[in-house]
Amino acid sequence: MAGKEPQAGTLRAWWDKWFAPAVILLAFAWAVATVAVYVLRGGRDDGLITLRIGHWQLEPGVRVGLNEMAAEYQKTHPRVRIIQEAIPEGVYGQWSSTQFMGGTAPDIIEMGLGLPPAITVSYYNRYCLRFSDLVNRPNPYNKDTEFENTSLRNTYKDGMIQSYIPELKEYMNVPLSQFAQRLFYNRDLYRRLTGKETPPSDWREFMADCQRIAATQIPGGTMHYTPVVGSQYHVSYWDDAVLNLATWRLYEAADFNHDYYVGTDELFVASALGLVDLSKTPAIRKRFELARQIVSQMQSGFTGLTRDEGVFKFARQQAVFIPTGTWDVGSLITQAEGKFDVGITDFPIPAPDDPDYGGWIPSPRFEKPSAGFNFTVTKFSRHPAVAIDFLLFLASKRGNEVLNRRIGWIPAIKNTEMTEFLKQFKPTTEGIIGNFNYNLGGNTSVFYSQMYSLFQVNQIGIDDFLGKLTAYYKTKGAEDFDEQQKDWRRSTPATERISAVRRMDALESIPGTQECRVAWRKYRNGSLDLAGGELGRCRMMAMVKAGVKPLAPYAYSPEALANIRRQVREKMGEPAAPPIPGQ
Amino acid sequence: MRSWSRRGIGMVLTAGVAAVLPLAGCSPAHSLSKPTDALTEGWDLFRLGDYPVAEAAFVRAAALSKPDSAEHQRALYGRGMTIWLSTAGGTITRNSQRAETFFERAAVATADPNIAAWSALALARTFHLMGGGDVVPDYAAVREGYNRVYRRFPQHAAGQEARLYAIALRLVDSKPAEAEIALTELDAFDRAHPSDLHAGNTQPFRAMCYEILNRPAELIKIKITMMEQYQLDTLAPQTDDRARQCWEIASLAEFRLGDFALARKYYRMILAEYDVEVRSYAARRALARMDRMEAELARAEKGVK
User: Fold this and answer.
1) At residue B21, does pLDDT exceed 70?
2) Are the Cβ atoms of B258 and A125 closer than 8 angstroms?
3) Which of B118, B208, B255 comes nearest A557 by C-beta?
């Protein structure tokens, strides 16, 4: 049968001849009709306003919470329909890029994932509306509350500081939630294995508990309990919460510009000039000693495990502790429901009188209250006023409280209520920060990751690890430092672009108006950024080139010491200094 | 029959494509008949980062305007900026060279002196950034380029910005002799432009000079002046940088000058003015450290007596 030609004039022959063209014609007609309907409808007001909102929050509760808020908004705005586009984190960067570049971005979009910071800034600049005027006006949805006459930014716990994009000198987004990281634990299992109710805040006691947990066999098997869940995702929480704190005092040797932070360039210069030695400086060594101790409490092979695999171990009650953030509260409680109680505790740190670590970590970490879940309105929105209005609804005192209660997150707005469970996330607002900023990028970063992974799984010891790191930092690190300086120069057109836009805003403004004055001030304030950045970098390069070990930035100079002695002599017998505020 | 049907289908498809093409763009075609409209369009597209289309708009603006008009000059400037700044790191030299032609023409045109000044500054800046990250600029030549702009437009913001760059770039090698000259030049600038746009913008460079010259007392004094004259953006007060400035003054006063009274004043300012500030813990520690140090020194003094 196969290959036999149908007879001319038969239905089969007609079908064979016209089938393909007919399919093409039908597909073409469908495409024409779709485009025509889309275009024609675009210009017509059919009474409905559809807002699209794009985000990457696939956690349980977020989509439901937003849908419920949309439904509530529709009660007072019956013509508005809100459609969510929830995109997985892994592809969010590509998705948002294609949406922006294709001109099809949703009306409201969550910003801040999957793109380098410079690209995010450029997308804000090109594709998003500016909110500076908006944030300085009261939120109309706060009528009849204590915030009725308060500007929007002042209703936020963090003053909307994260919404301000310094490069653009504008507020660019509206955040809706606040986040924090803590140590979650299986309350029942912890009680059963340690005989205690609450985990300790002291590092050594915590380690003792972990050893007790690890010594207990899981019933019905040969495996032992895992004290702390480890995975590629979860292990990094310990860095900022505990380990890096040991390096706080590095600022005394490397904060050359006296801003209290140690930049990657400053650490490199301090190392090159002999002010810091990665293998010998005690602060760095202590940091990795603590790392060794905590990774020993994680399940073997954790560096190869994903976030989900880590959570799975906790949900199966094979591990007691899991470090994560508020965004996981809902999913962890859901998974534990009916099986065990979930507790929250802060990360343990060494006690101030700890003989080995107390001097290096004299305080808990500083946690800046900062809001996230940031949304902006795109320039592609056909209904920007409605999109902004919906965001204001979500950012109102009541709206934000209800939204976050439904999601299970912490509200971003002041004086809002949250569940008892979440109250434990109150940030520590006085404390220390880590200053081990080793990552110069390029090969240095790759080498560090490789060596740190080997160190974490105990394939190399601390001396070997720090020795290799130091040797690499001094040789290849110098190349990456040099490249970092070149990269800065390569990025200068981006700085100039922003400056050019500010200049045009000023030139196009009407002379004598407030808008004109503001526009010129913005231009003026950023006009010397290029020279300032260049001189700062040149200074670092000149220090390395000179190769002379300088006085550490926070060491008393001989002149200062002489001055202090002179003043003490003069002051002897005088009354004591006034009390310190807050003490 | 077969050839007719093929021809027929082809005709139908062509007609369909022709009919749908105006719709497919999904936006009305812009008819830019005035140079001012084309200029506005060009800058709007520049803001959106759509550089090839922005350049086309500036080309159109130039074509629609008379060669000696202000619009023509603005179109040249816009086109130059678009070509130059559409650049990625690797193409900066080629694009700078292409843009130079337009800046040069806009800088010598006389219809809009404002644009002439900004074009001259852009020309100097292209030279400054030429080569991207892979070439260390010839700073002497770059400075001369900026100085030329100032000599031509001394009373214009663009000329004054150029002058500040020329002075600042003396400090790239951190040489004390150059820092001394720069200080003299900054004094002269401040005298010449006490109330112009860039008044007060000399201070960060003065501070760098004092740092290079290791003159901590003057460095701290200028830092205090900078802090006192800090112009807070009233629309964005959250950009308040005072806590960092307080910390810088306090720590320099403590460690470089040994002026504990001054150090205490600014450490205390951090604690008094900020509820949540990353430096609070360290400021409290610093105050305790200074008390301790003074007490120890006093004990030692008593022992000596």
Assistant:
1) no
2) no
3) B255
Nearest CA in chain B to A430: B281
Among residues A183, A180, A199, the alpha carbon closest in space to that of A191 is found at A199
Residues A416 and A471 in one domain: no
Nearest CA in chain A to B242: A259
| Radius of gyration, alpha carbons of chain B | 29
Q: Where are the alpha helices (DSSP H) in A395-513?
A: 397-407, 420-423, 442-456, 462-490, 492-508
Distance from CA of B25 to the nearest CA of A (A): 9
> Which pLDDT score, from 0 to 100, does residue B235 have?
59
> Which site among B281, B291, B293, B296 would you substitute to test the A interface, given the most A Cβ atoms closer than 10 Å to its Cβ?
B281
Q: Are residues A57 and A148 in the same domain?
A: yes
Please tell me the distance in Å from A433's CA to the nearest CA on chain B: 8
Could you tell me the pLDDT band of residue B144, with boundaries at 50, 70 and 90?
very high
User: Which pLDDT score is estimated for A1?
Assistant: 42
**Contact state of B26 with A556 under an 8 Å Cβ cutoff:** no
Contacts of B91 in chain A (CB under 8 A): none
Per-residue pLDDT reduced to its tens digit, B111-143? 999 999 999 999 999 999 887 777 889 999 999
Q: Within this chain, do residues A415 and A474 fall inside the same structural domain, yes or no?
A: no
State how many domains chain A has. 2
Nearest-angstrom CA–CA distance, A253 and B123: 42
pLDDT, residue A335, reads: 87
pLDDT at B24 over 50: no
- B48 and A379 within 8 Å at the Cβ level: the answer is yes
Do A66 and A111 have their domain in common?
yes
Task: Determine, yes or no, domain membership for A248.
Answer: yes
pLDDT below 50 — which residues of chain A? 1-2, 43, 579-583
Q: How confident is residue B7, by pLDDT bands cut at 50, 70 and 90?
A: low
Shared domain check, A413 and A491: no
In single-letter form, the type of residue at position A137 comes to R
Mean pLDDT value of segment B56-72: 96
Locate all alpha helices (DSSP H) within A277-322, ordered by sequence: 282-295, 307-315
> Would an 8 Å CB–CB cutoff place A555 in contact with chain B?
yes
Q: Is A71 on the interface with B (CB under 8 A)?
A: no
Say yes or no: A408 and A463 in one domain. Answer: no
Q: How far apart are CA A239 and CA A230, in angstroms?
A: 13
Instruction: Report yes or no on A350 lying in a domain.
Output: no
* pLDDT digits 0-9 by tens, B169-213: 999 999 999 999 999 999 999 999 999 999 889 999 999 999 999
Which of B37, B254, B256, B287 should we substitute to test contact with A (largest number of A Cβ atoms within 10 Å)? B256
A178 burial (CB, 10 Å; 0-12 / 13-18 / 19+) is buried
Residue A20: inside a domain, yes or no? no
Contacts of A364 (CB under 8 A, 6+ apart): A346, A349, A428, A431, A432
* Chain segment A530-541, per-residue pLDDT in tens: 999 999 999 999
Q: Do A465 and A541 belong together in one domain?
A: yes
- The phi, psi pair for B132, rounded to 5°, reads 60, -135
CB contact under 8 A, A531 and B165: yes
State mean pLDDT over B289-295: 96
Residue A549 has a pLDDT of 92
Contact pairs from chain A to chain B, CB under 8 Å: 220
Cβ A473 vs Cβ A444: under 8 Å:
yes
Cross-chain Cβ contact B255/A560 below 8 Å: yes
Instruction: State ipTM.
Output: 0.85
A518 lies in the same domain as A549? yes
Domain that holds residue A419: 49-179+369-423
A409: in domain = yes
